[in-house]
TrEMBL record:
Protein name as catalogued: DUF1349 domain-containing protein
Organism: Nonomuraea ferruginea
UniProt xrefs under Gene3D superfamilies: 2.60.120.200
InterPro entries for the chain: ConA-like_dom_sf (IPR013320), DUF1349 (IPR009784)
Length: 198
């Protein structure tokens, strides 16, 4: 597919997998529909590898923050809207708003270095959830915030390979999912305090 331009994102974007559908709404909103049975996960305990979820990524140089309000109708287990860091098929990380097996919207992070880990962080009760990825020197950070609240650190980690950043939708066990990434914001700045997200 052809490169995608989104005014809120300062670089050309490319598809890793073709979505069921997508559109840009204005300058700072992206809508991606994932088909049934789509995921990005390399199971650490089994030989199963899934890499068919639609993702739109682009290269961001230097320190940065990239955030979005993530909205989706969580209908099936592991349906998720994701901010993604992607170096290659063996090195990537994702920060998800995902439906847990308990039926609760949950912030989940996954870092893959050959195989994936899987860390369920905090259940979310509100409808205004913002996710953020940041590069801080040679490392990366994941944060979450609810509404206009403060950013909370979810994960701080290293990832080799100069990854691209972007957006992913998945529906591993369901019949598909449509994710709205709203109020997309990019800043070429370095976080000065990882713990409070500033």
């Amino acid at each position: 597919m052809a490169a995608v331009s989104l005014p809120a994102f300062p670089a050309p974007l490319r598809w890793l997998n073709e979505p069921e559908g997508w559109r840009a709404d204005g300058d700072d909103t992206l809508v991606i529909t994932a088909a049934a049975g789509t995921d990005l996960f390399s199971d650490p305990g089994e030989p199963n590898r899934y890499a068919n979820a639609p993702a739109l990524v682009g290269r961001l140089d230097g320190d940065f923050t990239l955030s979005a309000r993530v909205r989706l109708d969580l209908r099936s287990t592991f349906d998720a809207g994701v901010l993604l860091l992607y170096a290659d098929g063996d090195r990537w990380a994702k920060l998800c708003l995902e439906l847990s097996p308990q039926g609760t919207p949950t912030v989940v992070s996954v870092v893959t270095r050959g195989v994936s880990d899987d860390c369920n962080s905090v259940p979310m009760t509100g409808e205004d959830i913002r996710l953020r990825v940041s590069r801080v020197g040679a490392a990366f950070a994941f944060h979450v915030a609810e509404g206009a609240g403060a950013w909370s650190l979810i994960r701080y980690f290293a990832l080799d390979g100069d990854p691209e950043a972007g957006f992913l939708a998945q529906s591993p066990t369901g019949q598909g999912a449509t994710v709205r990434f709203e109020d997309i914001r990019y800043a070429s700045k370095r976080l000065t305090d990882l713990r409070n997200g500033e």
